[in-house]
Structure formats: C-alpha cells, structure tokens
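Lab notebook page, bench 4
Experiment: in silico fold of construct C2
Operator: M.H.
Input chain length: 336 residues
Purpose: comparison with the prior construct
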Amino acid sequence: GTALLTGCGSLSGTAKGKEYVTDASSSASASASVSTSSATAATSINPSDISEPDIAASAVSAASAATAVSISTMDDSALNIVFLGDSQFDNARGTGSSIPELVAQKTGGNCYNLAVGGTAASLSREQKNIGYDQWTDPNFTGVVNVLAGNVSSGIFGSYAAGSVLSQIDVKKVDYYVIDYGVNDYFNGTQIFNQDQNGDQSTYVGAMRTGISNLKNLSPNAKIVICSPAYALFYNGDHVFIGDGNMVDKGAGPLKDYASSAQNLASESGALYLDTYYGTAFDLDQNTADQFLQDGIHFTERGRRVYATALARIINKDLGTDTSEPSVLQIESSDFN
C-alpha cells in the first residue's frame, strides 16, 4: 500500500502517470516493502518533515584519493562519458570514489561530471514560463540547454560542474549517463502529463525532452538512464517514516518514479541501470545500512557497487565485458 502524507495541498489531485508504472515493477517492489505499521505511522507525518538530507561527510579511502580522475579536453580517440544528475553523482567529486570517477576507472574512459546536488529533472513551474535568458536552475533540462548553447553557463553558479563545461565537445561524447528522480519525488513533481508528453514540469516529460535534445546534440552518443535508487526516509529526529515503496510526497511513491525511468529507457532505446528493484545489485531494506549513509546517499562501498553495475552496462555495450549477468552483492570481497 501507499501512504499518502497529509498536507499535500493541490498536489494530491495531480495525475500520477500510471501508464508509466508497470505491473511487473509493482510486484517487484512488494518484496522489498517495509511493514504496514510503518505506513500507518507515516500517514500522520507532514510532507515537510521528509526532504533530501544533507550529505554527511565521510572518510575517503587512501586508494580512492590516489585515483582521483583529472579532467582533460575531449579527444576523439578516448571514451568520453558525460554524467548528468543529482547528488548521487555529485557526491565525493574529486576524491576518486565518486560514481563517475569509479566508472571512468572501470571502463578506461574519461568522465565529465555535470551533476549538481539537489537538482531535479523537471523544470520548476516558475522557470517553465520564462525565456532562456532568465533560467537559473541547473536541473536536467537546464544543463542540456547549456550544452546546446541556449542557456548561460551562469546557471551553475559556484557549483563545481560549471568548471567541466569547457572540456566538453558534444560531437565527441560517447555516452550520456543520466540519474534524476529523487528530487522530483521530494518536490512532489507530477510524474507524467497525459495531455502533453513533453511537459518539462513533469518528471517523464522533462526526461523525454532532455534526452531528445541530447540525441540531436550528439547523434552518435548512447544514453544510459539510471533509476532513482531505493531509499529509506526519516524525519528531522531520525525517526523512520517509511521506504520508497510507500511514502508519497504528493505524486506517488518513489518506486513509481523508478518504474517510469525504466519505461522511458525502453521507449527511447536507452540503456538502463535499475538501482531500485534489485536486479543490478542487492540494495533493499536489509542491506540499506551498508549501501546508504542516510537512507538516500550512497556510502563509498555503495558507490563502488553502483559504479561496478554501471560500468558493466557500458562495457557490455562496448563488447569488452562478456560475463554472464549477475546481481552484485555488497558483502562481496570485491568491494572491500
């Protein structure tokens, strides 16, 4: 069941894009759900009590620090991977243990990390109705429009992602890796607008529009869509509220955004990494304390598992990995 939180205002009446939620995904989520008593408790929690926590400072291993990836201007002879996303990709930037850096190490490629923590795929409603010259939000559609030359790079402000732009040549990109959804969820963003497929104020509409624009910018590049990851939610007193299968911020639980990402990948012909339903690695309620430092953001060990799964998709596409598919286990010695 889904726990719809009180105090959602007009968002509780928005369409939830059910055509973007598959029966198979819904069934898969049931096996990872937490007890219904937690769901009942969640119904009395105001949505404002649940937000993306600040990333806790965490120790970075010496091995990671020694393998931090330097950024160089794109070269046609290199494997060039551009990452667009939120804090999952932005976290631990420059330490050698960020997901983009780890993927670069595991694929032999160069990573160009345009992720900005706290950002969503969708446009805010305020930004939707103004000209490009007034855009200030470095969300997915904003960053894509910066790459297209429609929006000023000033939207990055002081974010580190802005310093990466000058090294990117969109004609030389081999892969775009995209990870959004959890902040769309936190914002109560409508998943899908059945009357306007490209509505950039919705999660699916923004993703669809941004991906289409990336294909126009870089016709030879492949797209990899990563779902928002399975998560546990706590209030400001660190009291457990529920997980991504049950807690609804206004437009559906997090699992609905994950299912929509999977369907969008199929629709757009993109490669896909499932980080929610356990088909790529064993993140669920039983292993969350090993994967996640605060219920949402990945630990260093969790980032290593995530990056291994992501690199495997790219390497298989390149033909350099012919191993049989398997679900990665976080307790494996491979991630020590």
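Observations: The first helix runs from residue 23 to 30. The two ends are 37 Å apart (CA to CA).
Next step: discuss at group meeting.
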